[in-house]
């Protein structure tokens, strides 16, 4: 299971369900909306990719995409248009709006899966190229390149796993990660790891980062998050 979230927006409910079922089988987390109006009420900035139908109600896919590209919080989310319209002008319009790909109906589900994978791969490469070398919170500084953490200029002796857990939580302040999430991300190559192992690492990490240890909050029944004060 990967960590990508996809939103499918199409006024054909059956098509939404088919795409949702098949993309979930590919390992994605998928939500659907049957109109642009419905989609715009959702927290779109939490999605990694949008599949937009062009021909919808009052707000077309093109109009919705234009709205999203003007908002700095959603401007970088990749968009694939899915539509029955396949004229050259429509394709050009889509790409001029910042679309990352354009699929004409009827299409094969294998084609959709392949194009989704390709767009997400390009997006991740772009993010990696512009990734920051450091991430910080107040006087807590995590150097991603040098793999070290300093507090008030003093280095904290973190293990590799502790460093990776802190990086994950700092990069996603306020987001709760379950033990399973952390296992999949930090211990992905190891065959068998107990939940208790995560708890032990979190406890040690809290002690090593001093006053910032209290920022790593336990959400009972859910997991852990880094909560800014």
UniProtKB/TrEMBL annotation:
<feature type="DNA-binding region" description="OmpR/PhoB-type">
    <location>
        <begin position="132"/>
        <end position="228"/>
    </location>
</feature>
<dbReference type="Pfam" id="PF00072">
    <property type="entry name" value="Response_reg"/>
</dbReference>
<dbReference type="GO" id="GO:0032993">
    <property type="term" value="C:protein-DNA complex"/>
</dbReference>
<dbReference type="InterPro" id="IPR036388">
    <property type="entry name" value="WH-like_DNA-bd_sf"/>
</dbReference>
<feature type="modified residue" description="4-aspartylphosphate">
    <location>
        <position position="53"/>
    </location>
</feature>
<feature type="domain" description="OmpR/PhoB-type">
    <location>
        <begin position="132"/>
        <end position="228"/>
    </location>
</feature>
<dbReference type="InterPro" id="IPR001789">
    <property type="entry name" value="Sig_transdc_resp-reg_receiver"/>
</dbReference>
<dbReference type="InterPro" id="IPR001867">
    <property type="entry name" value="OmpR/PhoB-type_DNA-bd"/>
</dbReference>
<feature type="domain" description="Response regulatory">
    <location>
        <begin position="5"/>
        <end position="120"/>
    </location>
</feature>
<dbReference type="InterPro" id="IPR016032">
    <property type="entry name" value="Sig_transdc_resp-reg_C-effctor"/>
</dbReference>
<dbReference type="Pfam" id="PF00486">
    <property type="entry name" value="Trans_reg_C"/>
</dbReference>
<protein>
    <submittedName>
        <fullName>Response regulator transcription factor</fullName>
    </submittedName>
</protein>
<keyword id="KW-0902">Two-component regulatory system</keyword>
<dbReference type="GO" id="GO:0005829">
    <property type="term" value="C:cytosol"/>
</dbReference>
<dbReference type="GO" id="GO:0006355">
    <property type="term" value="P:regulation of DNA-templated transcription"/>
</dbReference>
<dbReference type="GO" id="GO:0000976">
    <property type="term" value="F:transcription cis-regulatory region binding"/>
</dbReference>
<keyword id="KW-0238">DNA-binding</keyword>
<dbReference type="InterPro" id="IPR039420">
    <property type="entry name" value="WalR-like"/>
</dbReference>
<keyword id="KW-0597">Phosphoprotein</keyword>
<dbReference type="GO" id="GO:0000156">
    <property type="term" value="F:phosphorelay response regulator activity"/>
</dbReference>
<dbReference type="InterPro" id="IPR011006">
    <property type="entry name" value="CheY-like_superfamily"/>
</dbReference>
């Amino acid at each position: 299971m990967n960590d990508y979230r996809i939103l499918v927006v199409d006024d054909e409910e059956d098509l939404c369900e088919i795409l949702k079922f098949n993309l979930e089988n590919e390992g994605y987390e998928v939500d659907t909306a049957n109109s642009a109006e419905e989609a715009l009420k959702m927290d779109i900035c939490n999605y990694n990719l949008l599949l937009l139908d062009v021909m919808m109600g009052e707000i077309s896919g093109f109009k919705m995409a234009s709205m999203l590209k003007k908002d700095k919080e959603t401007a970088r989310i990749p968009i694939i248009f899915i539509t029955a319209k396949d004229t050259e002008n429509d394709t050009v319009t889509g790409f001029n709006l910042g679309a990352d790909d354009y699929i004409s109906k009827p299409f094969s589900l294998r084609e959709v899966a392949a194009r989704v994978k390709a767009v997400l791969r390009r997006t991740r490469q772009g993010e990696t190229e512009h990734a920051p070398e450091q991430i910080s919170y107040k006087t807590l500084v995590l150097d991603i390149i040098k793999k070290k953490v300093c507090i008030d200029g003093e280095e904290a002796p973190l293990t590799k796993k502790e460093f990776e857990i802190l990086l994950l939580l700092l990069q996603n302040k306020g987001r709760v990660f379950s033990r399973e999430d952390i296992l999949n991300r930090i211990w992905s190559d190891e065959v068998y790891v107990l939940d208790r192992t995560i708890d032990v690492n979190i406890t040690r990490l809290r002690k090593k980062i001093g006053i910032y240890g209290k920022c790593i909050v336990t959400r009972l029944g859910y997991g852990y998050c880094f909560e800014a004060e």
